[in-house]
Specification:
There is one protein chain. The protein is an alpha+beta fold. It is built from five helices and twelve strands. The longest helix is centred in the first third of the chain and has 21 residues.
């Protein structure tokens, strides 16, 4: 685990090389110390305010996957969710632009960094919903598969809290066509087959402390268990891609398109109309 609070020095390049080697080998990386304690407190206050605003809105905010139905008490399972936290809070926009955060991203995908979107997840204690194992690429594919996630933990995330679980090295299997989506998807048998091949309970738990950031490839097979603890699990997931990569024009996911560092080489006038 890397401490990003240390001052810049001659060892920075070696650390970045180590991070990149670990990421290339395992398909994921956990980095500590990206945000200081004061920033984390500010981000958590904004997070809690977003959740309260969502609950007052009357919108459907439970993003429980249909596959959670196989769990006992499935009708009570909840994961609160919204997209685009930076559209609620300036503190979150500043966090996405933090040099220490972008330095890690740059070491993994290069100097041109584009924000695809963000999403908030909160798993309440005792009945936080699980997510089945899947790859992310199908939701927002790019030509060179540079898309990655950065999960910013605003609480500890132990296995009993429903932390992320991964299959290390699974990004090397490449794109599997039936690994994403809900069970109402057009090929549920293929999705179940994938779930049998990569069961949730066979994956490696990635337990994290408050402030840790988990980075993983859109090809990495991942999911999370239910929160059966007495503590709430809070995180924000940031989806990013290289500015040298090209989004699939047929994908219909929410897109921010904000350049956080460097340049978006694929942008055209029609990209934003």
């Amino acid at each position: 685990m890397t401490d990003m609070t240390s001052p810049a020095g001659p060892d920075d390049d070696d650390r970045n090389d180590d991070d990149r080697n670990d990421y290339d080998r395992d398909g994921y990386l956990v980095v500590g110390g990206v945000f200081d304690a004061g920033t984390l407190d500010e981000l958590e206050r904004a997070y809690d305010r977003i959740v309260a605003q969502l609950l007052r809105s009357g919108d459907e905010v439970n993003a429980r996957w249909d596959s959670a139905a196989r769990y006992e008490g499935a009708e009570e399972l909840v994961v609160l969710h919204t997209h685009q936290v930076q559209n609620y809070s300036a503190a979150w926009l500043r966090a996405l632009q933090a040099p220490a955060f972008l330095d890690v991203v740059e070491s993994l995908i290069g100097p041109d960094i584009v924000l695809h979107h963000t999403k908030l997840f909160q798993k309440p204690p005792g009945h936080g919903a699980p997510f089945p194992m899947h790859q992310d690429w199908r939701y927002f594919p790019t030509e060179h598969d540079s898309m990655m996630a950065a999960v910013i933990h605003l609480s500890d995330a132990s296995d009993d809290m429903g932390c992320f679980r991964v299959y290390p090295g699974s990004h090397r299997i490449g794109r599997r066509p039936s690994t994403s989506g809900r069970l109402r998807w057009d090929d549920p048998d293929a999705f179940r087959s994938f779930s049998d091949e990569y069961p949730l309970d066979g994956a490696t738990p990635v337990e994290a402390r408050r402030g840790d950031v988990l980075f993983f490839s859109s090809l990495t097979v991942h999911g999370s268990g239910p929160n059966v603890s007495d503590r709430v699990r809070k995180n924000v997931l940031v989806q990013l891609h290289a500015g040298t990569d090209v989004l699939d024009p047929d994908a219909d996911h929410i897109v921010s398109g904000i350049v956080l560092r460097g340049w978006n080489h694929a942008a055209t006038r029609s990209s934003f109309s």
